[in-house]
Specification:
Radius of gyration: 22 Å
Strand order of the largest sheet: 2-1-3
Structural class: mainly alpha
Order of helices and strands: EHHHEHHHEHHHHHHH
Distance between the termini: 76 Å
């Protein structure tokens, strides 16, 4: 096909996971359930952290930011997929596709950075407990989050601006449920050498670097806990980061994202890469609330106190409304 420079009328087809209509209802129900669980679980964390002053610490500050990012992360892709299934339409316009890709890049990089920050926070708390309040001060925590936002936005703008320079053929099909960067680069009719180079470098630096930091932090934490002589001291140290240590293997899910991007040249495995992408686009944001926080006694205690306060305020509000 001839390249088409006029992208205003260009449309993509999101093929999703199955072209058979008999499986679409199953896919719709599965992804709707995962999306609702993700949103509800992360909203509970935001509610608990914001309503309880005892949770205004660096660890829960990063958790709250992770919950917000996870909600935005899944909301950039799943609602559009559910809408397409409901309307039996696979079309996404060029503008909507670029917008989805832009926000997907922002929140995916933020997700990885926040996981790295949380690992570093637990590393300082376990390996340098006497210096924890000095190192993890509010200024540093806020700066880390701000720098992560700036880096993520700049990276997304760079990738988006480079994609906007590409020409696409008509009637392009994306064998995915979202507009992902590597899929758009594969579908371009113009030269994509520079796009591939930048994409590979960004994948290694922005995902591989934090992943190495996460694994290093957790390895040092385990080593420090093993070095504690008393059993009571080991239990106390482990209890402060048990949920984080349990989720360390989840950081390996980001290896899936690296694998998807680094193997983007293999177009014949595009359906496999779409399935693998579910691990870091849907499954990880859904599991993060349960493993990181909702199993945490501090979070559960904050939610119980909030519920008790809401129950106590309920009768007072009713009495005020009925007061003549």
């Amino acid at each position: 096909m001839e390249p088409r420079n006029d992208t205003r009328l260009l449309e993509f087809l999101l093929l999703g996971f199955s072209e058979g209509p008999e499986l679409q209802s199953l896919v719709f129900g599965l992804f709707l359930s995962m999306y609702l669980i993700t949103v509800f679980g992360n909203l509970l964390i935001l509610l608990a952290v914001s309503s309880d002053s005892h949770l205004h610490t660096p660890m829960y500050f990063f958790l709250a930011n992770l919950s917000f990012v996870d909600i935005c992360f899944t909301s950039t892709t799943i609602p559009k997929m559910l809408l397409n299934i409901q309307t039996q339409s696979k079309i996404i316009t060029y503008e909507d596709c670029i917008t989805q890709m832009n926000f997907f890049l922002i929140f995916s990089v933020l997700d990885i950075y926040l996981l790295a920050m949380m690992a570093y926070d637990r590393f300082v708390a376990i390996c340098h407990p006497l210096q924890y309040t000095v190192i993890m001060n509010p200024w540093l925590c806020g700066l880390l989050v701000l720098v992560s936002w700036i880096t993520s936005v700049l990276h997304s703008l760079l990738q988006t601006s480079m994609v906007l320079q590409l020409s696409f053929c008509t009637e392009v099909e994306i064998p995915h449920f979202l507009c992902e960067l590597n899929q758009l680069i594969q579908l371009a009719c113009s030269d994509t050498f520079l796009n591939n180079v930048v994409m590979y470098l960004a994948a290694v630096l922005l995902a591989g670097g934090p992943l190495v930091g996460i694994l290093y932090s957790y390895s040092k934490i385990v080593s420090s806990i093993r070095g504690i002589s008393s059993a009571q001291g080991k239990y106390k140290a482990f209890s402060t980061c048990a949920s984080h240590l349990l989720v360390a293997p989840l950081s390996l899910f980001f290896c899936t994202s690296l694998g998807v991007y680094l193997s983007s040249a293999a177009t014949q495995s595009s359906h496999s890469s779409a399935t693998a992408s579910v691990m870091y686009t849907v499954v990880t944001p859904m599991l993060n609330p349960f493993i990181y926080s909702l199993r945490n006694k501090d979070i559960k205690g904050a939610l119980r106190r909030f519920s008790a306060m809401a129950i106590r305020k309920g009768p007072i509000v009713l009495r005020l409304k009925n007061f003549p």
